[in-house]
Design goal:
heterodimer, A: about 350 residues, alpha/beta, four-stranded antiparallel beta sheet, B: about 325 residues, mainly alpha, MetI-like fold, MetI-like (chain B), membrane (chain B), transmembrane (chain B)
Amino acid sequence: MSKLTHASKKAPLLEVNHLETAFKIDREYYNAVDNVSFTVKPRQVVGIVGESGCGKSVLSLSVMRLLPKGISEIRSGEILFDGKDLVKMSENEINNIRGKDIAMIFQEPMTSLNPVFTIGYQLQEVLLNHMEISKKEARQKSIELLKGVGISRPDKIVDEYPHQLSGGMRQRVMIAMAIACQPKLLIADEPTTALDVTVQAQILELLKEIQSANDMAIILITHDLGVVAEMCDDVIVMYAGKIVERTDVDTLFYNPKHPYTKLLMGAIPKMDEDREVLESIKGIVPSLKNMPKVGCKFAARCPHAMPECSFVTPQLAETEQGHEVACLLYETSRPKEGMNVQ
Amino acid sequence: MLKYTLRRVLAMIPMLFLISIIVFSLAKLMPGDSLGGEIDPANTDPEYIEQMREKLGYNDPIYEQYFRWITNFVQGDFGKSTRYKIPANEIIMERLPNTIFLSLTSLIITYVLALAMGIYSGRKPYTLGDNTIAAANYIGLALPSFVAGVFAIYIFSFHLGWFPSNGSVDISVTEGTFEYWLSRFHHVLLPAFVLGLLNTASYTQFLRNDIIENSRKDYVRTARAKGTSESKIYNVHIFRNSVIPLVTFLGFDIVNLVGGAIITETIFTYPGIGQLFLTSVTNRDYSVLMTLTMMFSVLTLFGNLVADILYGIVDPRIRLD
């Protein structure tokens, strides 16, 4: 696997290798994340973009080992965090990492907090889970944390219940909870999708500040390319459970290669163009059960589709330095001679 | 909260008034009266019966009788039992401790079992243990108490001889001694188990389903993401949420505590309120019947009030004012 060369040469913080996460439907497994590999270096902000149903959230839940039990599981691959494989860890071992070294914030701030406990209790819980401190110290620390995420009157809010706060404030509480133990990696799964546009900007600004202050790496999952441009160093574009393109943020915006990425870019409304209709990509992501087994999964919706796209599976490979694409339009993506067509 | 409680208590008064009118009218509309079955027409002069009816005011229009009754009732005169020839409140007070003892024991049995089974089933749904509990619960729910009671007496009293089959205490022991209380406890166990076990089903399944539902909520995922242990997630995060709907049951339980179990008490010939209520209906013992009805009504309204106040305590989203 080729490494991105523009990023720092340090050892990766997170290394995902050939991850396959599957859902069980009618006793059969269907891969929602299909052979995905990527790395996150310390202090790096990596964006993962794609439409709804392309596997972004499942990928992030896999890293946290928070997949819904019984219906989904990691089938193969490894997730190395600081050199240790999260996939092989026991429930207890992963509990020591969750909230402490890797933290996560979710899309829905309205339902992500427990309605019957105070903000303070829920903040202190993460501190008490991972630190040897007294309840009093934890309370003091949670007030500081609330202040740190820009909540006014933190000494009052700490005793209030989630329903007394607005969506933006709840998301701030979620962020405070996530950064409480100064994690090395924060996974933010569409952290601003459920919020007002003005609040979105504030939350992104806050995430940026915290990221540089805490020297934290972020995996930012979003379907908003504006957010990507604002926040990310590197971008991974996912389609139907696979990575289709990966590069740094500037290259992606100025020189997108995969037809899917190009179409996504086309769907961004532009200030200087007077358009009546918003561009959209025709069709939807195929459901897990109807996923084509071979060939490019985007072929059915792709304007550049060639006959071979439906039976030759493109490989993710470096077409230019630091720019990986999986599309048969590029010679590098063609399976090598003698190699099995996956 | 105080203002809320006060307002609710005041609102009970017109409600109780309406209840008393309806129940009194219905009781009086039942064919016959308290003299009907008691006096043997063969050797009692029908004219004497007629005189007594006139004297007791049974021939007056219902509204006059009601007015007479309610005037006395609000002054604390609950009337005299036509069957036991003592004031209605005395006969009720005599039975009340028995009933409370029985219901409290059965309620404890229900709560302990339902909490234990509900939490287990909710945490491990669709497993063998859960299915076994569900099967046992539905059998309990489907069994009528008169069947369960009769079988319990047949097996545990007649065949095994573990428990007495009737009464509330052994007549040979002296009141107040340790043996007396032991005997009372011994007498109450079998009916309490029959009552308690039959009632666990709804509590258990309610708690189980609520735990399963809550375990899929987003806040559980958040708690996991914080590194909170699975047992704390279930015992603290989910339990606090799942216990809220159970508070509704608590309101009804307060009524059941004194309302007694009519059928179970009758089968075990246990001298409680339920049995008294049934005989007061069949004997047309109006003063006892009405006093009991009013007592049940007050407690029902009171139980609902307690449930509503408890809601406000266990669920911060509900504020009473």
